[in-house]
Amino acid sequence: MMACMSKSCQILGTHLSFGNTVSHSHIRTRRRFLPNLHRKRYWAPSLQRHVTLMVSVKGMRTIDRRGIDAIVQELAARGEL
User: Fold this and answer.
1) Are 59 and 68 in contact (CB under 8 A)?
2) In which band, very low, low, confident or very high, does the pLDDT at 1 lie, cut at 50, 70 and 90?
3) Using an 8 Å Cβ cutoff, are 35 and 9 in contact?
4) What's the rounded Cα separation, in Å, for the pair 43 and 16?
5) CA proximity to 60, closest of 33, 76, 40
6) pLDDT digits (tens, 9 = 90+) for 30-79
7) Do 38 and 57 touch, CB atoms closer than 8 A?
8) How many C-alpha atoms does 79 have within 13 Å on its Cβ side?
9) How far apart (Å, rounded) are the C-alpha atoms in residues 70 and 68?
10) Any idea where the domains of the chain sit in the sequence?
C-alpha cells in the first residue's frame, strides 16, 4: 500500500500554486495551478532495481540530462528513497 503523496515533484519540488481566474467583466475568483505530474518508473543501475518517482515533465527532462543515478543519489541523501 502506498502512502498518500502530495502534489509535488520529487526532483524539482514543483508544487501546487494559487492564483486568480479573471473573467471578461474582470471579476476575480481563486483557482489552483496544478503541476504536470506523472508517476514514472525508472531502472536505477546503481541500486539494481526499479525506482518509482512522482515527477513533473521538467523533472523528467532533468533526469534525462543529469542521469538517474545522480538523481537517486540526491534523493537518498535527502532521505526520500
Assistant:
1) no
2) very low
3) yes
4) 28
5) 40
6) 999 999 999 999 999 999 999 999 999 999 999 999 999 999 999 999 88
7) yes
8) 0
9) 6
10) 17-78
Q: Does domain 17-78 have CATH number 1.20.1250.20?
A: no
pLDDT-derived band at 7 (thresholds 50, 70, 90) equals confident
- For residues 28 and 72, what is the distance between their CA atoms, to the nearest angstrom? 42
Query: Which grid coordinates are listed for 1?
Result: 500500500
Q: How much is the average pLDDT of 23-31?
A: 97
Query: What phi-psi label fits residue 48: left (phi over 0), alpha (psi between -120 and 50 degrees) or beta?
Result: left
Which are the contacts of 74, defined by CB distance < 8 A and separation ≥ 6?
Answer: none
CA distance 23 to 16: 22
Model pTM above 0.90: no
Distance CA 65, CA 60 (A): 9
